[in-house]
Amino acid sequence: KQEVTQIPAALSVPEGENLVLNCSFTDSAIYNLQWFRQDPGKGLTSLLLIQSSQREQTSGRLNASLDKSSGRSTLYIAASQPGDSATYLCAVKWGGSQGNLIFGKGTKLSVKP
Amino acid sequence: DAGVTQSPTHLIKTRGQQVTLRCSPKSGHDTVSWYQQALGQGPQFIFQYYEEEERQRGNFPDRFSGHQFPNYSSELNVNALLLGDSALYLCASSLGGPHYGYTFGSGTRLTVV
Prior knowledge:
The complex is a heterodimer. By secondary structure, chain A is mainly beta. Chain A is built from no helices and eleven strands. Chain A has strands at residues 4-7, 10-14, 19-25, 30-38, 44-51, 56-59, 62-67, 72-77, 86-94, 101-103, 107-112. In chain A, strands 2, 4, 5, 9, 10 and 11 form a six-stranded mixed β-sheet that branches. Chain A has a five-stranded antiparallel β-sheet with strand order 1-3-8-7-6, with no helix packed on it. The radius of gyration of chain A is 14 Å and the shape is globular. Chain B is mainly β. In chain B, strands 2, 4, 5, 6, 9, 10 and 11 form a seven-stranded mixed β-sheet that branches. A four-stranded antiparallel β-sheet of chain B has the order 1-3-8-7, with no helix packed on it. In chain B, strand 9 (87-94) and strand 10 (103-104) form a beta hairpin. The termini of chain B are far apart. Classes of the chains: A mainly beta, B mainly beta.
């Protein structure tokens, strides 16, 4: 069964700290992996998309890595800010699946001033 | 450039009623997917529409149905509403190939009482 797991479920850090969010997935035959941010009661904002042939993607203070062989991805946030507080979701699209993104349950991040 | 637009933003319905949710995809996107997100959970795939046909379907009963129009906009219909259908319904659009990322709307919050 294709599954996505995110640990920890919640994380609280002081402002300015660098942090890493983890995502693991079964079955390495993925098309791509996408990281999203979700504010309470809101929709999903795409942060980074990594294709199966790529090892990492960067956008500003965010860096996402992908290791298909170990079934892991990490989202690195540098110099965290209170505005980064949100739930971060990892979603995987597998080969043979035309449109089915499978999501983890997310990591709820709180950055304290 | 308008992103994905969903309407309405909030909706309250009574058990047994029927509901229709609407989605306009991001300009240039031809594929629309619908997801259900229960509180504290990751989004669950309902179905995807491409070229006005349902291309793939998740593990949802036939009470959930949809439609895609020639302008690529889409509707999600839910019949015989149950209390358990209360959730945030998210629409995502993309291009049709498997390597493209998804753009999500802000969602429709459905409450069934």
